[in-house]
Structures are given as C-alpha cells and as structure tokens.
Design brief:
This protein has 309 residues and is an all-alpha fold. It is 61% helix and 3% strand. It is built from 14 helices and 4 strands. The strands form 2 sheets. A two-stranded antiparallel ribbon has the order 1-2. Strands 3-4 form a two-stranded antiparallel sheet. β3 and β4 form a beta hairpin. The protein is globular.
C-alpha cells in the first residue's frame, strides 16, 4: 500500500487575518483531512490537564517513562505527529525500550502508516522477548479502574492489527496466534479472538474461524471490550448482524464510537458472506462518523481504499 503524504501538518497563518487555522492531525487513506475533534468542556479540560502534568514531569525528568506518558497524552488528544515526535526523541535516548517502540507503533497505525507501525512493533516484540508479562498502565481508566492488558499483549495485538490493515492476512494470522498466548483474561481473549476470526475468514479458513470463536461464550466477564464480545456472539449466530450494527444507546457520542467498532465487524461479516454491496454501504456509514482513531474506523477505511485500488 502506498504511503500518503501528510500535507498541511504545520500550522499555517490565515491569509490577511493574522489568525491561525488548525491543521489536520491525519489524512485518511481516502484523502480526507481529519482535525482534532471538538469535545465537551469537561473532557477537554481533563485531557489538557493530563497533558500539562505529563509535559511538566517530562521537563523535570526526561526519563523513559515520562517520554512515554508525554507521548501518550498527546495521542489521546489526537495530536499524532506531536506524539510521534516525542516518542522518537525518547527512542533516541532509550533505543532498547520496547515500550517506546510499542507506543510509537500504535500512533503510526493512527496515522495510517502501516509499514512504519510494523517496523516499530516488530522491534518492540524483539526487545520484549523473554521477559515476563508486564501490566501496562491505562491512560483512560476502565470501569473497575484496573489495567487489564500487558505490554506483551499490546505489542502483538497492534502488530497483528497493522498487518491486517495492510491486507497481509497471513502475517496477521501468525501475529494473532502469538497474541493469543498472552491473553490471560476475558477482555483480552475476546479482542484477540474477534480479529483472529476475521483474519481466518478473509483467508477462506472457515473451519479455523469457527474453531477459534468457540473460545467465546455467554457469561464471560467483559469490562472493556463489549463491542468485540458482541461481534463474536454474532459470528456464532447468537446475535443478529442488525442488532450489533444498530447500537441502542442514549448517548450519541457512545453510539458513534460503538458504530465505528461494531460496524466494521458487521460489514466484514457481510463481505465474506458474499454481500459486498451491503458491506460497502456499512463501511461507508462507519467512515461517515467522527471517531477516526478507532481501529474499526481505520479498518473500514482500508477496505474502501482497497476497493478504489
């Protein structure tokens, strides 16, 4: 997949006004510019405060950990290039840091630079090899305020995703198999199984897909990954595609985010079941939303991009 040129990433001055215009934080695979999203005053204040603290900590002590948090906080604001710049500087100071490569790889995925993401995440995988599972702290706490994922899971999960988004399903399959070995709770299991199922189906490995989704069952304790859980139940025939696609949520923000995640799985289900027109319509509905950083959104975008090619 060719790499898009990220134009207009520097702030430009409006002609004749002296005002500054916002620059896009990412250019999609389809050529659309996305800007830092508008948020409620409460959410914006929290994100800005967290960034100020992270920056102050980094300025006082530019340690590996403080480089990571400074980069992460920028990423949560969708300021992807700035996040990459900080993490790159951190890598220059700490070249053996699997964590820095892992987080920069994640942000390269956000920027649709899949080859760069793969390079970083392969490097992170090598650097983390042989070490015991290490819980990775959450930047956005979950409902029980307890981190559920590990560094090793996140490296392999994001690596597999980068291969998947690039359309290299064979390599994605191998990375997901490695990722599955690090799944030590229900949330990680359903996230990995969901993408493994889709990876197998895209390769025509239907029996393997049905076998792997058998690891998901009703009554699992899901804290974070409810959308992936519902997709897996859909694959098993326990939920209809329509019920998964149309999210009944009074909160428009949550509904749009759920569509970005659940919608891709439903569209993909129609695609490998022979209804490409329905799949394309759903992918277009997903990318009409605003959660351009969600993995389902990027995946739908990648499908539409391949159709154009």
């Amino acid at each position: 997949m060719h790499r898009l040129v990220f134009a207009l990433l520097l702030v430009v001055t409006a002609c004749g006004t002296g005002e500054q215009k916002k620059s896009p934080v990412v250019i999609s695979l389809l050529g659309k510019a996305y800007y830092e999203p508008s948020r409620s005053a409460k959410v914006q204040a929290r994100l800005d405060s967290n960034l100020r603290v992270a920056k102050a900590n980094w300025e006082a002590d530019p340690s590996e950990e403080n480089y990571i948090w400074y980069g992460r906080r920028l990423g949560y604001l969708s300021r992807y290039q700035e996040a990459v710049d900080v993490l790159t500087e951190g890598i220059q100071k700490f070249p053996k840091s699997a964590k820095l490569y892992r987080h920069r790889g994640h942000r390269y995925i956000s920027m649709r630079l899949f080859d760069r993401a793969i390079d970083d995440l392969e490097q992170a995988h090598q650097l983390a090899a042989g070490f015991p599972l290490e819980i990775e702290p959450d930047g956005i706490p979950n409902a029980i305020n307890t981190p559920l994922s590990t560094l090793q899971f996140n490296i392999r999960y994001h690596l597999a995703l980068a291969y998947y988004l690039k359309g290299d399903f064979a390599k994605a399959e191998q990375a997901y198999i490695e990722c599955l070995k690090t799944c030590d709770n229900d949330d990680l299991m359903v996230a990995c199984v969901d993408w493994m199922y889709m990876t197998y189906r895209r390769q025509g490995k239907t029996e393997l897909a049905q076998s792997i989704v058998g690891n998901v069952h009703e009554g699992m304790k899901i804290i974070e990954n409810d959308s992936y859980y519902k997709r897996c139940l859909m694959y098993q025939g326990k939920l209809s595609p329509d019920s998964v696609l149309h999210v009944a949520d009074a909160d428009p923000e949550q509904r749009d985010l759920s569509l970005a995640t659940q919608g891709y799985g439903v569209g993909n289900w129609y695609l490998y079941n022979g209804d490409s027109a329905k799949a394309k319509a759903i992918f277009e509905e997903v990318v009409a939303g605003k959660h351009f950083g969600a993995f389902g959104f990027i995946a739908a975008e990648a499908e539409l991009y391949r159709w154009r090619e």
